[in-house]
Amino acid sequence: MPLEIVMSVSFARAGLILGLGLTVASGACAPLRSHQGYIIDADLVNSVQPGVDNRQSVAQVLGRPTIASQFGAEDWYYVARDSRNLNFQKPKPKEQITLKISFDPSGTVKSVTRTGVEQIAKVDTFGKTTPTLGKKRGFFEDLFGNIGTVGAAGAGGPGGGGGGGRDTP
């Protein structure tokens, strides 16, 4: 093969590899988007009317709730959240809609309330360990702390009076 063809093929291969590498690298930095929960249709939500609808009609229109209250008031919650994150970071909520439908004791819709992302509580953890009250033990105390406790009086082992064996004369 002539030298010009070999050079053009090698440049084409290098360009292809470089192009694929840039495509993969740029895709790795793209934000990941996710949706969790209920898919809210505004027309269906607006059709639920307090004093008119009941549990059965709400279930037919909106489907089963994301969360239903277990104690006290009869409330159904429909939650939808859109999150974004880059690479391996924790997802951050960008939008959230929580639809709360309250029922009276007879099962009729009492109220429909909508809240957004402002209701999300951010909980910061306290380090990687849970603080406890009491003595703090070190590595060697954890490792060797039980030496001498096996077979102690009342422990049930040999010499501990636990009656583990028969008396022989």
UniProtKB/TrEMBL annotation:
Domain Outer membrane protein assembly factor BamE: 37-111
Keywords: Membrane, Signal
Highest taxon in the source lineage: Bacteria
Pfam families the UniProt entry points to: BamE (PF04355)
Gene3D superfamilies (UniProt xref): 3.30.1450.10
Name of this protein: Outer membrane protein assembly factor BamE
